[in-house]
């Protein structure tokens, strides 16, 4: 929703997004509003003095360093692509190998090359194929289509752009005799956070005696969008083994309290006119 607030994406576009079960974001937003009907709705895009976002790190850097507070320097860039490979159906027992336009065979070639040439480009790149759909997904039918998603991340925007161009060229070249269509779904540049706010977070952590260190966010957050509108920053606390978005996600209660103390101190300073 921060994209809608910041004017990056229209709310109608966000509401139309649906999950694999066909449930749209709009349906869930309306359900959430109905559950808290006494909370008034506010228009999007009102002026904001500053934005501070607390979050778990979703990484192991703080945990391994024995630090309680992460002073987030920025967020690495991200691109998401949807690739559709179009081939032709055929009977697995009768269609000669030389005559096949097998979409899975094309996907296998593409996936291996992407992992090698894009995922192995440099130590800072993060490359993931996280979703693959095969059609008709039957054991005795040569598949005519594959749709998959690529998640590409890098802290350097030039490297991110080079990776994106390489993904497109590899998919189009190696799909033959099938065809590949590459669609960009997300293109978010790497961004830095406000230096003054970062200094305030560091000072608050020092005041309370919480060990702190600067860290880059390797996951995306609302603060990326809010940084377009106002001074923005983030406060990280450790999470066990870097696990997030999972049932085993865990933070220590004292870390949560420390993060809250630092957040409150910075908010109080901002409210006083900082």
UniProtKB/TrEMBL annotation:
Top-level taxon of the source organism: Bacteria
Keyword Hydrolase carried by entry: yes
Keywords recorded for this protein, A-Z: Hydrolase
Regions annotated as coiled coil: none
Pfam families the record matches: M20_dimer (PF07687), Peptidase_M20 (PF01546)
Peptidase M20 dimerisation domain: residues covered: 74-176
Signal peptide interval: none
Family: Belongs to the peptidase M20 family.
Protein name: M20/M25/M40 family metallo-hydrolase
């Amino acid at each position: 929703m921060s994209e809608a607030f910041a004017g990056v994406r229209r709310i109608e576009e966000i509401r139309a997004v649906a999950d694999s079960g066909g449930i749209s974001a709009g349906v869930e937003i309306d359900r959430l509003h109905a559950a808290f009907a006494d909370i008034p709705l506010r228009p999007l895009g009102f002026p904001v003095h500053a934005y501070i976002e607390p979050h778990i790190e979703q990484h192991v850097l703080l945990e391994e360093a024995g630090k309680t507070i992460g002073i987030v320097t920025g967020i690495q860039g991200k691109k998401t692509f949807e690739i559709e490979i179009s081939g032709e159906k055929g009977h697995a027992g009768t269609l000669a190998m030389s005559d096949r336009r097998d979409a899975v065979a094309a996907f296998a070639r593409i996936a291996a090359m992407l992992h090698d040439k894009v995922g192995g480009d440099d130590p800072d790149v993060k490359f993931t194929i996280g979703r693959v759909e095969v059609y008709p997904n039957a054991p005795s039918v040569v598949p005519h289509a594959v749709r998959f998603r690529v998640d590409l991340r890098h802290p350097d925007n030039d490297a991110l752009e080079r990776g994106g161009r390489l993904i497109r060229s590899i998919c189009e070249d190696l799909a033959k005799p099938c065809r590949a269509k590459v669609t960009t779904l997300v293109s978010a540049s790497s961004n830095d956070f406000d230096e003054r706010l970062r200094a305030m977070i560091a000072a608050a952590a020092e005041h309370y005696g919480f060990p702190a260190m600067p860290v880059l966010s390797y996951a995306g957050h609302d603060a990326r969008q809010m940084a377009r509108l106002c001074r923005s920053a983030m406060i990280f606390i450790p999470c066990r083994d870097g696990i997030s978005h999972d049932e085993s996600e865990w933070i220590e209660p004292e870390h949560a309290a420390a993060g809250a103390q630092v957040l409150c101190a910075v908010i109080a300073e901002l409210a006083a006119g900082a």
